[in-house]
Amino acid sequence: MNFGSTHLRNEVKEKATTLIQFSGGIDSAFVLWDFLSRNKDEYCLVHHINLINHEGRVDYEKQAVYEILQWLDNQGLINYIYLESTFDYGNLGYIIKDVEVCGFFSGIVFRSPHWSNLKNIAISVYDINSKREGLRRTLLREVSYGKDYHFEYPLHRMTKKDVMKAMPEQLLKLCWYCRTPSPSGKCGKCITCKEVLKFNII
User: Fold this and answer.
1) How would you label 14-53 residue by residue, b for 16+ Cβ within 10 Å and e otherwise?
2) How far is the C-alpha of 119 from the C-alpha of 53, rounded, in Å?
3) How far apart are the C-alpha atoms of 65 and 58, rounded to whole Å?
4) What is the DSSP string of 1-69?
5) How many CB atoms lie under 10 A from the CB of residue 145?
6) What stretch of H or E contains 87?
7) How many CB atoms are located within 10 Å of the residue 137 CB?
8) Coil, helix or strand at residue 136
9) 76: left (phi over 0), alpha (psi -120 to 50) or beta
10) Which of 116, 98, 111 is nearest to 27 (CA)?
């Protein structure tokens, strides 16, 4: 799929200074939309990881990612380059926190000579001092061989309700947040479904 400034890929590649890991969920969608809206003369690298595990979220998340990127393009917010990777747990029968996988892949991206101009990573978490976030930072530093970069936390001092109310309604409705989807879609029972539904915004 072609999204963003693909027609300027070689030129934009040198201008991309910020990495945004994009799951298609509410938090990362807000961070991406907010960055593109506020930094129209700056480019970012948007990276989605297809997480294949027993939860069965991968196809729903990918659809949300594509629909959100198309929506952003339609708003004229094309100052980004989109990349996609896949992490498959196979039959391990055990999964780790998503932020750890993101930290590992972020380290790969920062280590790559193709993205040598990346200086920042905008992260969609609320608690910047959590153990999970510490693991992400550690993995990123180890895999990237300690490359110099700056962590940005746009959601710091915000709540989930703040984020949802600040987003355009159309964008919010495109996001995927269910951890354990049913054949008919969002389960409405998992921790993330309950968290979102209690605000009665969507």
Assistant:
1) eebbbbbbbbbbbbbbbbbbbbbeeeeeebbbbbbbebbb
2) 31
3) 11
4) ---SSGGGHHHHHHHEEEEEE--SSHHHHHHHHHHHHH-TTSEEEEEEEEEESTT--HHHHHHHHHHHH
5) 9
6) strand 80-88
7) 17
8) helix
9) left
10) 98
Closest CA to 150 of 113, 169, 123, 129: 123
Pick from 11-20, 103-112, 153-162: least confident: 11-20
Please say if the pLDDT value at position 8 is more than 80. no
**Of the candidates 23, 29, 24, 19, the residue with the CA atom closest to the CA atom of residue 164:** 29
Structure-token pair, residue 14: 């040198």
Q: For the segment 157-195, what is each residue's pLDDT rounded down to a tens digit?
A: 999 999 999 999 999 999 999 999 988 889 999 999 999
Environment class of 128 (CB within 10 Å of its CB; exposed 0-12, middle 13-18, buried 19+): middle
* pTM listed for this prediction: 0.92
What H or E segment, with its residue span, contains residue 160?
A: helix 160-166
Classified by CATH at the fold level, domain 6-197 comes out as Rossmann fold (3.40.50)
- Residue count of the chain, please give it: 202
28 touches 46 (CB < 8 A):
no
User: What is the residue extent of each domain of the chain?
Assistant: 6-197
**Burial, 69: exposed, middle or buried (Cβ in 10 Å; 0-12, 13-18, 19+)?**
buried
Compute CA 160 distance to the chain's CA centroid, rounded to the nearest angstrom. 15
